[in-house]
Design brief:
This protein is α/β, with parallel strands linked by helices. Helix content is 33%, strand content 20%. The protein contains twelve helices and 20 strands. Strand 3 and strand 4 form a beta hairpin. The chain binds guanosine-5'-diphosphate (GDP), 6-O-phosphoryl inosine monophosphate (IMO) and magnesium ion. The site of magnesium ion has 6 residues, from loops.
């Protein structure tokens, strides 16, 4: 029962899309297990760029069944637009399966996401305003409406009526917004979206287990990342799901014993979009250079990403939280022009050295990074395909990160293209 998880080890945008696509070649099924269209996963194939939000990154291979698991929150109009975009580029989406247990995102979720952010003022989280948090909140308070509810119009209308009975006064009286019309929403979801989605709605848990029992290779594609995890991330500056590897169990319906490989996707430096602590953040020309060379702007939101040096304290914590078996190190080529590189090997908080993540959030806000400096390689890595193409200092940087993190780095990304990577010796 070969099951692999791909998980982001930092604050997202590590290159999960590219590496999922890369590993997917050997897979039969690719399953998204959490998040929604807050994700933006970029794949570049033959100079064509695909920006995926909801559809699993395995979609580009004909032999793969892409699955949106029960742990995902689905905006049906966004999913349909994404399928249209893919089909317009000649990609067949007929194989896509969507769990009937996945929760739906509604216009009131998006409206609430926007107004609560505005309400928070300078304390805002910097969410993607896609309605993700409010949709998961409704799931937790058991007033969520699921994909399977679309299949019973009576139940769907009833549930929507109950929810709007609470949301409309909230929107109108607390946030001074216009109330939403249940009939207009029902017409959009039932008459416009359902006919397109119906053939894709499935019992994905049984589908997944039939595949595993038949010895098929299943890949679980994490969205967001370890430090955006609702439980383990830099709360409250997190997303509202569990991107960590364990999230694949609840978000797709498998037990931990079914998983035999967990690949951590790790950028060779660090980025973050939105608010929250960032110990190694760079506010200088090196930070700007990382944005420029790394094209560090949100895949879907276009927001400029904050940048910083590689943080080994976070990486070690990600190994623990996800039981990582290996790492794919991405975007090494972005560091090509630097004379000196820094790696944060520990934090100092009030004179105390921490090699592991301090548990109290205030410590993280007050932590001072302890850096080790390494020489840069100052040459273009983008054409490297073999280990011996990498200059000595690039190999030393990789080896140093590996020794700091404690798990092997198996693949190294040297450009956005599908073929721009180097296999490290096993
Ligand atoms: P994801 O959310 O983790 O899938 O990552 P995003 O797609 O949001 O952001 C990663 C960006 O880096 C995308 O534009 C990718 O095309 C690009 N990318 C991925 N791997 C590499 C790499 O090794 N080198 C470079 N230069 N770009 C990469
Ligand atoms: P991928 O899958 C980077 C961040 C937002 C915000 C916080 C909460 O492409 O790596 P949300 O809309 O989820 O309630 O926002 O999480 N965030 C991401 N940052 N990459 C992502 O996805 C993200 N998805 C959410 O910027 O700080
Ligand atoms: Mg992204």
């Amino acid at each position: 029962m070969p099951a692999t998880i791909v998980v982001g080890t930092q604050w997202g945008d590590e290159g999960k899309g590219k590496f999922t696509d890369l590993v997917a070649k050997e897979m039969d099924m690719v399953v998204r297990y959490q998040g929604g269209h807050n994700a933006g996963h970029t794949l570049v194939v033959d100079d064509e760029r695909f920006a995926l939000q909801l559809v699993p990154s395995g979609i580009l291979y004909d032999h793969i069944t892409p699955v949106i698991g029960n742990g995902v929150v689905v905006d049906p109009a966004v999913l349909i637009a994404e399928m249209d975009m893919l089909e317009g580029k000649g990609v067949d989406c007929g194989r896509l399966r969507v769990s009937g247990n996945a929760h739906l995102i509604f216009p009131y979720h998006q409206e609430l996401d926007r107004v609560t952010e505005r309400h928070l003022g300078k304390n805002r989280l910097g969410t993607t305003k896609r309605g993700i948090g409010p949709a998961y909140a409704d799931k937790a308070t058991r007033v969520g409406i699921r994909v399977q509810d679309l299949l019973d119009a009576k139940i769907f209308r009833e549930k929507l009526g109950v929810v709007l009975h609470e949301k409309n006064p909230l929107l109108a009286k607390v946030y001074n917004r216009l109330p939403l019309d249940p009939d207009a929403i029902a017409a959009r979801y039932l008459d416009e979206c359902l006919p397109r989605l119906r053939p894709h709605i499935a019992d994905t848990v049984n589908l997944l287990h039939e595949a595993l029992e038949a010895g098929r290779h299943v890949l679980f594609e994490g969205a967001q990342a370890t430090f955006l995890d609702l439980d383990h991330g830099t709360y409250p500056f997190v997303t509202s799901s569990n991107p960590v590897a364990g999230g694949a169990c609840t978000g797709a319906g498998i037990g931990p014993r079914d998983i035999n490989r967990v690949i951590g996707i790790t950028k060779a430096y660090l980025t973050r979009v939105g608010s929250g602590p960032f110990v190694t953040e760079l506010d200088d020309e090196v930070g700007d250079m990382l944005v420029d060379r790394g094209l560090e702007f949100g895949t879907n939101t276009g927001r400029r990403r904050r940048t910083g040096w590689f943080d080994a304290v976070m990486a070690r914590h990600a190994v623990r939280l996800n039981s990582l078996s290996e790492i794919a190190l991405t975007k090494l080529d972005v560091l090509d022009t630097l004379e000196t590189l820094k790696v944060c090997v520990a934090y100092e908080v009030d004179g105390v050295r921490h090699e592991h993540m301090p548990y109290h959030q205030s410590d993280l806000h007050n932590a001072v990074p302890v850096y080790r400096e390494l020489p840069g390689w100052r040459s273009d890595l983008s054409g490297a395909t073999e280990l011996h193409h990498l200059p000595r200092n690039a190999k030393s940087y990789i080896a140093f990160l590996e020794s700091e993190i404690g798990v092997p780095i198996r693949l190294v990304g040297v450009g956005p293209g599908r073929d721009q990577f180097v296999h490290m010796a096993a």
